[in-house]
Amino acid sequence: MVLLSRKVGLCIAAVAAMGAVSSVASASWTNRVLLNSLSGLYQPATWQGQTNFFSTNGVRSLDVTVDFAVFAPGQFPGNYTPFAGFAAPPANDFVYAYQVYNTGVANGGLSTTQFSQLGINSLGPISSLGKDQSGVGPTGDVGAINTNFAFLSAQGASYLFLVPSIQVDQYSVVLLFSSPIGPTFSQASVYDSGLSANGNLPMPIPAPGTLALLGLGAVVARRRR
User: What is the pLDDT averaged over residues 94-117?
Assistant: First the structure.
């Protein structure tokens, strides 16, 4: 199996009077909403861009690009809808946003198979998992593939597209999570049909000292109970 990952950093120039996101509208192959000049971005020269994930077994190929953007605490301009079992993000959390494009020949890619899972390998902490079906814009993202399945594990966050999967030349709704920890580039993975590929995406990775404090806080909380 051939695995190839490529991070493409994008520096999006600021545009005057772009405080509102009304011009963003819904996503498409030509309007990649997370790559636009959005209000509330956290250091967009670093934490806005896209990563390509490619895997092939010689018969089938999975060619997925994940657009990403990180928003400063309390500054997410879209509509954060928590998944079942999760609350809205705390006001002081960063919001991490991802959108998955399964790129076939029609859009300049090589994918020949469906896509079903994005895994974000983060030590967290992650406060909330959610999505934005509006495409971080006001008009509704009617072309995107929706999901109601996401979960947290010891490895981080996972988003599942099972019924339906994301077929070739389709893309996902904007996938979200929140964390009190700012971003670092670390490993993420895409999967389907026996194919997998790894690449780097922004995610919260606490410093070792922060992990120790979090662990101590958990011990204190248990003792108080």
Answer: 96
